[in-house]
Amino acid sequence: MAETKKPATRRSPRNEIAIQTLFRSRLNCRAPQIKVVAIPNAAKRGQYAMNQALREGMKPGFPDVMCLAPGGKIAFVEFKDARGALSSKQEEWLDGLTAMGFPATVSRDPDHAMRFLQDNGFPFVFEMGGFGE
Predict the structure, then answer these.
(1) What residues contact 75, with CB distance under 8 A and at least 6 apart?
(2) Is residue 19 over pLDDT 70?
(3) CA distance linking residue 133 with residue 119, whole number of Å
(4) What is the widest separation between alpha-carbon atoms in the chain?
């Protein structure tokens, strides 16, 4: 009996860093005008380093990335892995940014984050969709 192969499936990244890395890589190809700034708030720090970061303006719970595009567009994305839950400070930031009129979302998948940007009018050279997406 001939063996049948399963169709290839795209594996989801397993952690937040992998999701963010894939997001930046794909976004750079499809929307090079969009600039992504990482906000390193979740790093494990000693007490001295934590106090220093707070003095320098770190805000616990602030979204993972800020996306900037021509025309003054700004959006925020908080990445979570499949099991990750938002902290109360993250919820407060996302709600507050949305209340101020900034698009903000939680994403567990790089393609979801790109669709969010596209849906909010960010410029894409290659639109989302097609090629198995």
Answers:
(1) 66, 67, 102, 103, 104, 105, 116, 117, 120, 122
(2) yes
(3) 16
(4) 68
Distance CA 94, CA 75 (A): 11
Tokens, residue 23: 């997001």
Backbone phi and psi for residue 35, each to the nearest 5 degrees, phi listed first: -100, 135
- pLDDT tens digits, residue range 57-71? 888 899 999 999 999
This model's pTM is above 0.85? no
For Cα atoms 12, 10, 30, give the angle at the middle one, nearest 5 degrees: 85
Strand 35-38 relative to strand 65-69: parallel, antiparallel, unpaired? antiparallel
**Element holding 107 (H helix, E strand):** strand 104-107
Round to whole Å and give the CA distance between 124 and 128: 8
Whether 27 contacts 114, CB under 8 Å: yes
Report how far residue 40's alpha carbon sits from residue 58's, in angstroms, rounded to the nearest whole number.
Answer: 8
